Amino acid sequence: MRYSQKCMATEENKNAASGSGAQTGSQEGFVYLPLIAGWLVPGAGHFLLRKWGRGALLAVSIVSMFALGLAMQGKVYANAHDILDILGLAGDLGNGLLYFVSRLMGWGAVQVQVTTADYGTRFIVVAGLLNVIAAVDAHNLRTGRKS
Amino acid sequence: MTHFAAVALFALFASTVFGITQRETPRQMLRYGIYCFLLFVGAAIALSWLMYFIAR
User: Fold this and answer.
1) How far B30 CA sits from the closest chain A CA (Å)?
2) What is the ipTM of this complex?
3) Chain A residues closer than 8 Å to B21 by CB
């Protein structure tokens, strides 16, 4: 390819940009499935992509962090009255089904009453944020942005 | 659970996720995970000593 054709819309460049070729087989199906599955169940996005080791480590890390947060009587945000509550609720929602199940079962404290509960609240929020990172990573693997 | 145990567990789980999601190969993941873990724990210890001297 000549230098002048390097960034032009030649057939070769179009194929490279669209990811055709070796990645074509992995681009079939609903592309957002690993993202949604990874959000709902920690590690599930990687399991769908047959990344068993990574998925297991992510699942153990996120579920353990969430469980430790609950064990420390951390608060599970149910509603948002101010900006900090909104941020906490957004972080908690990152846990996907773990959050909804804990709400349904009434797990977690409503009010922070002991010192460790403050740590527990942060553990739950950070578990949700880490789960979002993991779900986005599964999406990147699915789209071929990451190998 | 002691405060340090909570910090160590937090660092362990967060570093695991950071290592897996921010690097490509298993070797790079392990190295970055260990790097993050040491930074988490090191920063916690350094800030703890800082607060100890400020409080005196």
Assistant:
1) 12
2) 0.91
3) 133-134, 136-137
Distance separating alpha carbons of residues A85 and B38, to the nearest angstrom: 31
Q: Look at residue A6 and tell me whether its pLDDT is greater than 70.
A: no
**B10 near A CB under 8 A:** yes
Query: Average pLDDT of chain A?
Result: 84
Q: How far is B20 from chain A (nearest CA, A)?
A: 7
DSSP letters spanning A81-135: SSHHHHHHHHHHHTTTHHHHHHHHHT-SBSS--SHHHHHHHHHHHHHHHHHHHHH
pLDDT tens for residues A111-144? 877 888 999 999 999 999 999 999 999 999 999 8
The answer to the question of residue A119 being in a domain is yes
Q: Which domain holds residue A86?
A: 30-143
Contact at 8 Å (CB) between B24 and B46?
Answer: no
Count H helices, E strands: chain B? Answer: 2, 0
B16 pLDDT tier (thresholds 50, 70, 90): very high
- Chain A residue closest to B23 (CA)? A146
Residue A25 lies in a domain: no
How far A4 CA lies from chain B's nearest CA (Å)? 32
